[in-house]
Write a structure and sequence with these properties.
The complex is a heterodimer of chains A (about 140) and B (about 180).
Chain A: H1 3-6, H2 19-32, H3 37-40, H4 43-71, H5 80-87, H6 89-95, H7 98-128, H8 133-139
Helix pairs in contact in A: 5-6
Chain B: H1 8-16, H2 18-41, H3 44-60, H4 71-92, H5 101-106, H6 109-114, H7 119-129, H8 133-143, H9 149-156, H10 160-179
Helix pairs in contact in B: 1-2, 2-3, 2-4, 3-4, 4-9, 7-10, 8-10
Classes of the chains: A mainly alpha (about 140), B mainly alpha (about 180).
Chain lengths: ~140, ~180
Amino acid sequence: MNKLNEIPDKNPFKVPENYFKEVNRKIISATSGYENEIRKIGFYNRFKPYFLVAASVTGFVILSYVAVTILSPGKKPMQVSEVINEENPELYLNDIDIFTLEENVASMVLSQEESEVSKADIVDYLLQDNIEISDIYEKL
Amino acid sequence: MNTIKPDDNIAEILKTDPNKGFSLVVEKYSSRLYWHIRRLVIIHEDADDALQNTFINAWKSMGDFRNESSLYTWLYTIATNEALALINKRKRNAAVSIDDLGSHFANSREGSTWFDGDEAQVKLQNAILKLPEKQRIVFNLKYFDEMPYEEMSKVTSTSEGALKASYHHAVKKIEKLLGGD
């Protein structure tokens, strides 16, 4: 006897009243706020593969440059001041404002004067000790 | 039950007016998909969640839908996956596992509210619950939805020969379980 065929073809499960009407309304309402995939294909999405390739190539070039610069043996990287002096000394002077330049020059002149005054003082001091002037200048 | 044939008209409306087309899809297929999911997950609230997720996922990936494949089998595939995901989630939470429909409904409020099967119906549902997952899906699609093997093959990504064998084994097991009482 085929037991399966004896069971009446009746759906034993039930749903709340008006369930399908309600659930259809809920689904349509929930999805109305979404942009679906058909509409979402904008400029970025359309050209996304090209952007990714371009970004990868750029990254590779930057990394290669950095690697070659850091890892290549031999020439030591020059300091900024060396580069300025070697390649274009005017650049350095042009970048300094006039007040800074005057201050630097004044301090250099002052230090030279101080140096001469102190030399005269030394000569005077030594002359007081009866040392011959010719010997003093010879030593200085 | 008769199977639903692919509706070219809805597919056309989906292209020109996605919102209107989708409303037609929901109205046409929600009931069938609900019963397919409900027979797998048993509990109404779970079936309700899975049905809504099915349509939301279908809407979100409407771009993946190709005209050459049937809208109907595509929706069944999503619904089946949603139902299986829910069953697996429930398996991880042993507290809500359903192994025996009779005892589950006898001990829950849902028993008197959303199930009115007689003793034979409960026995049949219990026998179906004892089948392996794949056989359950195949049995339900063939026995209740009367889905042709060709369409079932698209839904389950399984060859027709394997589906026929699976259904045959499922029927044998169910009859054995029913006859053993």
